[in-house]
Structures are given as structure tokens and as C-alpha cells.
Amino acid sequence: xxxxxxxxxxxxxxxxxxxxxxxxxxxxxxxxxxxxxxxxxxxxxxxxxxxxxxxxxxxxxxxxxxxxxxxxxxxxxxxxxxxxxxxxxxxxxxxxxxxxxxxxxxxxxxxxxxxxxxxxxxxxxxxxxxxxxxxxxxxxxxxxxxxxxxxxxxxxxxxxxxxxxxxxxxxxxxxxxxxxxxxxxxxxxxxxxxxxxxxxxxxxxxxxxxxxxxxxxxxxxxxxxxxxxxxxxxxxxxxxxxxxxxxxxxxxxxxxxxxxxxxxxxxxxxxxxxxxxxxxxxxxxxxxxxxxxxxxxxxxxxxxxxxxxxxxxxxxxxxxxxxxxxxxxxxxxxxxxxxxxxxxxxxxxxxxxxxxxxxxxxxxxxxxxxxxxxxxxxxxxxxxxxxxxxxxxxxxxxxxxxxxxxxxxxxxxxxxxxxxxxxxxxxxxxxxxxxxxxxxxxxxxxxxxxxxxxxxxxxxxxxxxxxxxxxxxxxxxxxxxxxxxxxxxxxxxxxxxxxxxxxxxxxxxxxxxxxxxxxxxxxxxxxxxxxxxxxxxxxxxxxxxxxxxxxxxxxxxxxxxxxxxxxxxxxxxxxxxxxxxxxxxxxxxxxxxxxxxxxxxxxxxxxx
Length: 608
Ligand code: F6R
What we know:
Blueprint: E1 3-9, H1 13-23, E2 31-37, E3 42-48, H2 51-57, E4 68-74, E5 89-90, E6 96-101, H3 107-116, H4 128-137, H5 142-152, E7 157-163, E8 170-175, E9 180-184, E10 187-191, E11 203-206, E12 211-216, E13 219-224, E14 229-230, E15 235-236, H6 252-258, H7 260-268, E16 272-273, E17 276-277, H8 286-291, E18 294-299, H9 301-318, E19 322-326, H10 327-330, E20 341-347, H11 353-364, E21 368-373, H12 379-383, E22 386-389, H13 402-422, H14 427-448, H15 451-459, E23 466-471, H16 474-490, E24 493-498, E25 515-520, H17 526-537, E26 542-548, E27 560-564, H18 572-590
């Protein structure tokens, strides 16, 4: 997704912008640009491609002198990735520069309107209408012009704006697209995400919907859409700068795979007190928990996969019916709610547009919404009735690993807490489960210790055309994630199937040597899985099995076996996913793919 950085202060702006944009590269982008004011003129350089191109074109920023500037990395939505569609965009007299994240939904109407007034457009973007509309309304009062534009545009935006006749000022505004401001010792910054400013400051302001910000070298002023000044307090960010860097690993993804034992511990241990589950953020009485009639779990991608897994845990332990929905589907169907329905939304970024829309839709209908979110202060976190944070820390690699693992932990804890409140499990069972949960970080470490074995196996499959993942019950949920991890970063076609469903079509795709990864961690489904493995093996498949230590019988039906340590049947996902993450990673590395930034993907999907 697009990234914004703005700086006004004592330093030359362009190098600060390049540095900040580099910290946002993980969001995914196809072009980059900067606008810098030297006090009289605004100069713009922008180009399709990586930041390296922008760096070269501006000689590391030297060719854009000045102390006030805005920068942008664009992920194409309106108009193809190209130099002309890259941001910043200017008005015709080149006195106003704009960078924008989000989508102006009524841009075609506005464009037509402006064209009728004599404005000429030089890009295909929705953003350019903002530059021309600002021009139309600007009569020397930036705040007034921005407010008028905000009243005209529909959709989502985080905007960074400069006016050439206001050289000591920069402006920003937002609606439904993340934006923060940072107060540094030698100036002030705006950014679409915290890592962009961490090098300069830890004091950060979260800009809320329909707020406007005026930045000067030594001041930050916030206004609402009516132009009234707002008082705001900064939040001090606790992350270490190094937490947002690779720490010696070749890729952020591998670093984050290795951070999983810590992320799981950080998410779990503060919520286990004196052998009991205590989720402070859960503002629900036992009585309210007992009254829950149904749970919807709504999310996208991997977060959705944790929901598929959690369904088994909630239903099995707490005996509450659960429906799991893709957020992009949920928002357009007509789900049936009652006053005791609980909607759980799961999101790493807390900004995923479809998940946010589902949350809003449910809230509109009076449904209580609980968010499981990683990014503190994100839109989903702010708008949910209750939010439980996954303390995974910043996740940079586009393919999620540690956020996924921590989402599972929160879901286990919630299901156990609900089961306790509803009296559907004994205290002894909960006690045993807590002991198993506590062992997970160490067990994940043990699995990571065997990474070379998986690397050797993965190297054999870098030329594979199709790879299938099969499982039953909870193992189907693991298969979904294993398959997504592989395909999104290695570009190898892969599908996950409920193993019993194979013979209803998919089995015709199996050819001599096709790799089928079979996940069988559930004791009650073990024998059925063996039969399904035999079915595909007799049709030529090569079987990689992931099972629990002790299940040696599986070796008769598989060609290669990975064992995971013993744990509670509901927690096997947390362990089985580790070798599957490593497998996907090593296949992608072996193929020379851009593991951290797979083509066409973005870390935070803030468009529908
Ligand atoms: C896959 C992946 C995506 C996200 C999905 C939801 O590795 O990362 O499938 O899980 O885009 O994103 P969040 O969790 O930010 O809502």
C-alpha cells in the first residue's frame, strides 16, 4: 500500500524523505516521488520503480534542496504504475503539491467538473483532482481550502500538502487512511506509519478521521474539519529502532519467523496470571459471555485462516456456534444477528479495508465487535468495542508469520476464557491447556532448530508447477495457511483441500511426482488422513507428511515426514505451521524471489 512521509525542519528534507520512505517499503509500491520547497519554488522528482531509482535521479536528494518536503511510494489503484501517475501531483501552476493514500471515490465526477472549469489533467489518478480542487479553492488560506476540499471529496485519504507561497508550512489531513505526525528535535514529520519516523522521534500523534494538521519547523497544530483547533497528546512509541530492521537475517520474513517464540510469549504470558487466564482488555462479564449466542469471525487472508482454526477451538471448548467469513464477502451478505451475537475481527495491520467495513457494518446493526489487532492505534483497534492486541511487534515482511501465530494465541485464550465462563470444560482441563500453551514458545524453537532439513527438502521443489496441501478439521486450517505462504512468495501454484474433498474433483490434478503436503495432527482423523494420502500416492503423488511425534506409522504412507512435538489437539496449528512457513520461505529463496515484497502484494490492503 502507498506510503507517505513529510518533513519540515532544519535538515535538508529530501534525504529525510528518502530515509523515511525506505522504512515504508514493506507496504508495497510500484513508484516513488518527492516534492521539496526551497522557499520559493516546489520541485518534484518522481518515477516508476523502486526507491533506488528516485535516489539516483535526485543524487540522494541533493538535486531537491530545501527544508520542507513530501514523499510518496505509490501502489497503483487508479492508472497503471508509471512516472506520470506517481505522486506527488501538482496543480497546473505548480504552486501546490499533494501526496495521497486512499481512494477518492467521486473523482470522475470531480474531474469532469474541474475540466469544465478549464483545468487540465496530466495523470490518470484520483489524487490529481485533489491538487486541482485545492487550486480552485485556495485564496491564500490553506486551512480553508483544505476544509473545502474535504467537504467535496468522498472516499478515503491521507494527504500531505505544500503551497509554494507558504514556504514555512506543510499541511496534512486524513479520513479512513492511516496518518501519524512525529515531533522531532529539529523539525516535524508526517508519515503513513510509525517506522518512517522512528529514527527521528518516538513522540507520535495519531491523526483521527477528518482532522487537519499544520506543521511548521517548531510547531504542530491540529484542527477539525470546521477549522477549530484541537488539543492532542503524543504517544511515546516503545519499539526499538532495530526492531524494525533485519537484525542480521537475509529477509524480514526469516527474522519474523524466528521472532515467533518471543511474539507468542509476549502475547501469552501477560494474560496468564497465577495459573489463570486474565484478559484485561476483555470488558465482558461472565454473564455476558454466557449469553453469547453466536460468534462471527471475520478477516482476510492469513488472519481469516486463524479464524478457520479458531472455529474448531471455540466450538469444541466453549460450545458456541461459530461462522468464519472472509471480510470481503461478509460485508455484502446479509448475516443474521441477534443481541447476543459477537463479531470478532482479526487483523495484523488494523487497516484492512474489507475488515474495517465489516466491523462498521456490524456495529451499525448494534453488534458487539471485538478486535484482535497487532498495530496499536490502528483504525480497527480504535473502532472495535473491545480490542485485544497481539503483541507481535512490527511485522515488515508482506507474508505474515509472527502476527499469524499471535492471532492464534489470542483466539485460544479467548476460547478457553469463554469455555471457563460457560462451564463447558473442567478447571483441570484449562490448567492442562495452560501448561501446554506455556510450552509452545520452546517447542517452536525446537522446530526452528531443524530448518536445514526443511531447506534441503524445499530445494528439491523450486521448479514445481503445482503443490497441494491437504488436511482434515484443524489440519485443513493449517493447510490453508501452508498453501498461502508457499504461493504468495514463491509464485508456485498451490491449493489447500479438505482431504475428504479430493476425490470430488481435485484428485484429477495429481500427476506423477506432484508434491502433496499432508497435515495430520488430529488423532481422531488420523486414519482417515492415511487413507487420503494413499489415494493420492497411488496416483503418483510424492507425499510430505506433517504429523505429531510418535505417529511413526505415517512413514508407510508418506515419502518424507516432519514431526512436531506433542501438544493439546487444539494448539497443533501453532507448531505445524512452522515447517510450512519454512518450506514456503526456502522454496521462494531457492527460486530467487523477492521474499519480503512479493510481486503485486501489499502489506496493508487499505482498498476494497
Ligand atoms: C498473507 C497475508 C495476508 C494478510 C491479509 C490480512 O501472508 O499477510 O493474507 O493476512 O491481507 O491483513 P491484516 O491482518 O493486516 O488485516
